[in-house]
Amino acid sequence: MFVAVWWAVALLRQDFRLLPTPDLVLDALIAAAKTGALQSNLLITMARVAASFFIAMTLGSALGILLGMSRTADRLLGPWVVLFLNLPALVIIILCYVWFGLIEAAAVAAVAINKIPNVAVTLREGAAALSRDLAEMAAVYRFGRWKTLRHVILPQLSPYFAAAARSGLALVWKIVLVVELLGRPNGVGFELQTAFQLFDVATILAYALAFGLIVQAIELGIIQPWERAVNRWRR
């Protein structure tokens, strides 16, 4: 349905440079794939997304669980989380590039710093809502810290992990493109900047389509199956 509407609007406008038809976008996608530029830039961008996503999820989850389970930590660190949560992503990106230079580590760090507060806020809500009955049961049966974490705490937090991962993937991918556009010589963001300068809308839409397909594959092939698996204990 969407493709049909897109095709109809493009044909009505008759300005294929501004709004190319789906077949022109597909041609641009195939042309980029034949040169190898599409695969190369997608892999580079996905590597940055994966590194930033892993760092943000690891540190953000640990911070969020700490804030949710400790009122003292929440009082001390909560305001800082809110500050970074509302700090514009562009500011953090520019500061990382200015302080550390136009290097790969600065790019990944800028993306991770932008995402960590979002993960922390989500997991804080989950940790604050943990069942006290289950915690008391674990204490009575002397589960110990590791067993309690694995079998009592983490299963209850799985929906919050899934929500943080799903929103995090969308946010990280968008910020990575800005990072690449501002200070990297490769990746999808760099290619989009080049296409913008050439007013090549077909190439812009081709890269957007390619990455959209990858994100859908991750959602359907990884996140949703994992979410179903970790929630099997729920009635």
How would you describe the oligomerization state of the chains in this entry? Answer: single chain
Mean pLDDT: 83
Number of helices: 10
Strand content: under 5%
The tally of beta strands, per DSSP, is 0
- Indicate the structural class: mainly alpha
Query: What is the H/E order?
Result: HHHHHHHHHH
Radius of gyration equals 22 Å
Give helix % range: over 70%
Distance linking N and C termini: 37 Å
The 3D shape can be described as: elongated
| Biggest pleated-sheet summary | none
Ranges where pLDDT stays below 50 over 5 or more residues in a row are none
Description:
By secondary structure, the protein is mostly helical. The chain has ten helices and no strands. The protein has helices at 2-13, 22-35, 37-69, 71-86, 89-100, 104-128, 132-140, 145-183, 188-197, 201-230. The longest helix has 39 residues, at 145-183. The radius of gyration is 22 Å and the shape is elongated. It starts with a helix and ends in a 5-residue tail after the last helix. 30% of the residues are buried.
How is the secondary structure organized here?
Layout: H1 2-13, H2 22-35, H3 37-69, H4 71-86, H5 89-100, H6 104-128, H7 132-140, H8 145-183, H9 188-197, H10 201-230
Helix pairs in contact: 2-10, 3-4, 3-6, 3-8, 4-6, 5-6, 5-8, 6-8, 8-9, 8-10, 9-10
